Amino acid sequence: MNVLDLARPEIRVMQAYSSARMESAGGQLMLNANESAWAPVGDTGQGCNRYPDPQPVALLDALALLYGVRREQLLVGRGSDEAIDLLVRAFCRAGEDAILIQPPTFGMYAVCARIQNAGVVEVPLGDDFALDVDAVLAAVTPAVKLVFVCRPNNPAGQDVSRADIERLAQTLSGRALVVVDEAYVEFADEGSVADLIDQYDNLAVLRTLSKAWALAGARIGSLLASAEVVALLRRIMPPYPLPQPCVDAALIALSGWGQANVRQRLAIVRKQRKLIGEQLSRLPGVREVLPSQANFLTVRFEDADDAGRRLEAAGIVVRDVRRHPRLGDALRITLGTPEENARVIGALKRPLLRGRRTADGAIPGKCA
After folding, report:
1. Cis peptide before 104 (omega within 30 of 0)
2. Is the full-model pTM beyond 0.90?
């Protein structure tokens, strides 16, 4: 069975939109796309008056080399969110098909499914937030076309082993596409599973430059999958997903010195993750610091409201994850610079002075 047999039949046969840029190969005088002939004010040679290449070759080559895949196995878009949305729209018929997720997990999988009116099958992570492969496999029905696995998990922080991913892909071959979200994999001890794509055509991997590569504002995400899946998604992808300034920023980040800089910062984050985790675990009022393979620590508090107010009073914003299953007492704290992390520890050590005004008249912990 070909993996495309899992996709919506109407998507497999549809005629894709052909953009003016796709039809302009070899041209010199570009008068086919109704663009302005003049660059905008402040343009520094980026050519922003012209539509960008839908899939820039230089960026594809750099990312393919980085991720260890072939160019035809790579789709680049606006963050991982776009790839998630494209996958759901391509594989799930509204009102008939479904995705499977393991809460607590990244919320966009379910959001994209519900926008498409696809079902959402939930198989909760175990008590230690580990993936229960047997439970996932038991829950896959013929309606489930996509199984999303977040590794390392967001918001809990735990990784999923390569063996578990391979077992899912092997067992679900011909039944469902296994989509592994590796947004945080650069911070983890165990590497990517992208090399398994050649072995399993029903395996897809999501990667991003938003986290380790410090390009959250550029919105560059990638889908790594079989060439057939990539070609299918390109049919329904908007014609110009990548702004030229974002492409330029990504190419700089992926340069030799850019990669050296990332390696240095990754080492700092890993060291801080261990150090700050130990310091947090010793603080009064902290119940548990969940093990993390990402660039954040999810912390259980005896009183998460009080901890949140302490941080807020110090001007520190963290993520309230208490809406997630079994995280009703937790806050997620992104690891910053060593100085920023020290501020977090200091803020949680200080008592909250309720009702007392500071010298400038503000009330600590009170929102403006």
Report:
1. yes
2. yes
